[in-house]
Amino acid sequence: MTPLRVAVLVSCFAVCAPAVSNAQEWTFGLGSTDYGDAGTDSAVFELEYKHTPFVQRRVMSLSWGANASLSAEGDAFVGGGIWTRWQWDSGWFIDNSIMPGLHSEGTAGNDLGSVFEIRSLLGVGYQFDNGSAISAAFTHKSNASIATDNPGMNAYIIRYHMPF
Questions:
Q1: Which of 14, 96, 115, 118 falls 20 to 30 Å from 105 in CA-CA distance?
Q2: pLDDT tens across 76-111, in order?
Q3: Residue 53 domain boundaries
Q4: Which of 22, 17, 87, 28 lies closest to 55, judged by CA?
Q5: Residue 158 lies in a domain
Q6: In CATH, what number is assigned to the domain containing residue 38?
Q7: Average pLDDT over residues 66-83
């Protein structure tokens, strides 16, 4: 089977797979950027959307997601990709996402080397009985060395999750 056929089959499965019991979710985050020695750190606000999972196995689920972030320095990012959650009956969970997207620096020193950046996230949190949750997350944005310059940027974020 050709790589193109495999990609089409995987895409069809991802789009057509039945939805499972977890709800969609909005996540609001507030934190701080860390550009290392290269840029200007500042507060950052994030808004994230997680779609109803298209795969769920025991404690793990896969969803499509989207993220938008804006820093106090005017740095902006918009992207979308895969969101994975490991959720235990105790209420504790681990979130992980990979979201390619577009980055625009608000301050010249906050240039990440290209407009295309990949945002990865690792978070840990607790879900309350009403379905809302709180988490702490670490994010990293990088162009994966597709550009000559790849300084990267980290952010540390406290997040509130609202299912709907």
A1: 96
A2: 999 999 999 999 999 999 999 999 999 999 988 899
A3: 19-163
A4: 17
A5: yes
A6: 2.40.160.20
A7: 97
